[in-house]
């Protein structure tokens, strides 16, 4: 199964000409689990489990550039200088509701991270995002923020969420999604060129309803067993 359209570089490389801030993950386990997610026959329980597993793997890439600082510790044999994360560390921000499927896997890797939530739904007629809830930590300016949402389709929800984060003081922001469409990548990079985007695949296009094709369906419905 192709995960990247023929006119784009293979997974795992930054896309310098068209989308300079985008990285597509090529890890075999990510691609294998994504294929299972796409299948219509995958159950709700398996979809939820696979999303959590992929999210943990994607968290390694999303946290690659975290700052470290030296600290003196005692091992069972002798003292040494080792490295640990510096500063206020991380904040994960979930775009509700489907973002919580990715959030769980990332918290498995970094359980001490702070968590924010932004509730957005897409107006069926205009496809524009409508905010209905927001709760963020107070010290975002001191943290690296990782925004999570399974799908980057039109890009409007991602832009709205990142707008709100920047209004709250965040300046170091990464966006992580399972699937993206070229239209969404173009919208997000045009609005926030400083935001790194990490995705497991770039699919062909959006349909007239704003769904990614070939995609995997509605991620929220598949995560929570709703229609």
Give an overview of the whole structure.
There is one protein chain. The protein has a single domain (14-67, 79-220), classed as 3-Layer(aba) Sandwich (Rossmann fold), CATH 3.40.50.2020. It has helices spanning 28-38, 44-62, 99-109, 156-167, 182-191, 219-224; strands spanning 14-15, 19-24, 68-74, 79-85, 90-96, 114-122, 129-135, 144-148, 151-152, 172-180, 196-202, 205-206, 212-213. The radius of gyration is 18 Å and the shape is globular. By secondary structure, it is α/β, with parallel strands linked by helices. Strands 1, 2, 5, 6, 7, 8, 9, 10 and 11 form a 9-stranded mixed beta sheet that branches. A two-stranded antiparallel ribbon has the order 3-4. The protein contains 6 helices and 13 strands. Helix 2 (44-62) packs across helix 3. It is 30% helix and 32% strand.
Q: Give the count of helical stretches.
A: 6
Top-tier CATH class: Alpha Beta
Percentage of β-strand residues: 25-35%
Helix content: 25-40%
How far apart, in Å, are the first and last alpha carbons? 26 Å
- Quickly give the CATH architecture: 3-Layer(aba) Sandwich
Might you state the CATH topology name? Rossmann fold
Q: Using DSSP, what is the number of strands?
A: 13
| Low-pLDDT stretches | 1-6, 8-14
Query: Structural class, judged by helices and strands?
Result: alpha/beta
Q: Give a quick account of the main beta sheet: strands, pairing sense, barrel closure.
A: 9 strands, mixed
- Reading the helices and strands in chain order gives EEHHEEEHEEEEHEHEEEH
